[in-house]
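To illustrate the input format used throughout this study, we show a single complete record. The first block contains the structure-token representation of the backbone; no residue identities are included at this stage. The design step must infer an amino acid for every position from geometry alone.
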């Protein structure tokens, strides 16, 4: 499996509760439409004080080509544009997953 781990830091004009609400209620339905998406986890970062990131998503695809095709699609472009319009920082980590404990 191939995974994208995407870390987001909200724009300064968002409070954390509103940002998390957007992420779960508005952004998540778009992500679910990504072609080839096999599994997804949305994680809300809980930190004492200020954190470098507010959310971390994990998106699984069959391979890197499937991930690239998903984001090249019309919905993939909408997903990226939706998040980029709400954040001041986005880090995408691409990883080949090796499960060690089922």
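Output of the design step:
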């Amino acid at each position: 499996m191939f995974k994208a781990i995407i870390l987001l830091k909200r724009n300064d004009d968002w409070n954390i509760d509103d940002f998390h609400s957007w992420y779960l209620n508005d952004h998540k339905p778009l992500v679910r439409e990504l072609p080839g998406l096999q599994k997804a986890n949305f994680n809300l970062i809980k930190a004492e004080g200020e954190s470098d990131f507010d959310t971390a998503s994990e998106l699984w695809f069959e391979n890197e080509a499937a991930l690239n095709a998903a984001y090249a699609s019309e919905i993939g472009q909408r997903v990226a544009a939706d998040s980029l319009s709400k954040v001041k920082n986005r880090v995408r980590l691409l990883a080949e997953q090796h499960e060690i404990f089922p």
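Structural context for interpreting the output: The first strand starts at residue 2 and ends at 10. The helical segments are 16-32, 64-72, 74-84.
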